[in-house]
Write a structure and sequence with these properties.
With about 200 residues, the protein is of the alpha/beta class. It has one domain: Vaccinia Virus protein VP39 (Rossmann fold, 3-Layer(aba) Sandwich). It is about 35% helix and about 25% strand. The protein is built from seven helices and seven strands; from the N terminus they run ααβαβαββαβααββ. A seven-stranded mixed sheet has the order 3-2-1-4-5-7-6. The longest helix has 17 residues.
């Protein structure tokens, strides 16, 4: 598995996504809602989830394999006084012990993961029995919109840090034997990044 390293993408990410952040804010609050105990953010990126998660009182851990994204997350945590342990793990190979977390969250991450099923195996491994995986992701669309995604996907991946527009993320999540699906909701995004899906799986 390749380790991501996108200096320019990391430098531009917050600036490019800032106009769309109000659309994502409620979903970040969803990830943090009623969180407690030990929490892991898989693919923390530049740390946009951290202010929401820090307000829960949970003990925060996060992983980000891209060194340029991780450096920005570290700076955000330091700037905002957020106590978080940040590691450089790939989602497919977490360095945490079995059953160490009460909740794992991801936000716009699984579109870039090389092996999403292996990453979900790891999420299941590090969750305690009864623990939750909460996610906000984008997924492949249907019909003409899907064809557009497939057409632009090769260029999009090169420009957007490996993001795959047409991945059936929810299908991968719901097919995993370790989890039961508590809820899944779908929202229109900003094409070609649409739909946005969020939900909760329970171990």
């Amino acid at each position: 598995m390749s380790r991501p390293s996108h200096r320019l993408f990391a430098a531009l990410y917050d600036t490019v996504t800032r106009p769309f952040e109000p659309l994502v804010e409620e979903h970040r609050r969803y990830l943090a809602q009623d969180a407690s105990g030990d929490l892991l953010d898989v693919g923390v990126g530049t740390g946009a989830n951290l202010p929401y998660l820090a307000g829960t009182g949970a003990t925060l851990h996060a992983v980000e394999p891209d060194p340029y994204m991780r450096k920005r997350a570290e700076r955000r945590a330091e700037r905002e006084g957020i106590d978080v342990e940040l590691r450089d793990d790939l989602a497919e190979s977490l360095s945490y012990a079995d059953e160490g977390f009460d909740r794992v969250v991801s936000a716009l991450v699984f579109c870039t993961v090389d092996e999403p099923r292996e990453a979900l195996d790891e999420v299941a491994r590090v969750l305690r029995p009864g623990g939750e995986f909460r996610f906000v992701e984008h997924a492949g669309d249907d019909g003409f919109a899907r064809r557009v995604q497939e057409t632009v996907n090769p260029v999009w991946r090169r420009c957007a840090g490996g993001c795959r527009l047409d991945r059936d993320t929810v299908g991968i999540f719901e097919a995993h034997d370790a989890f039961e699906t508590v809820e899944v909701e779908s929202f229109r995004g900003v094409p070609p990044v649409s739909p946005i899906v969020r939900g909760t799986l329970r171990l």
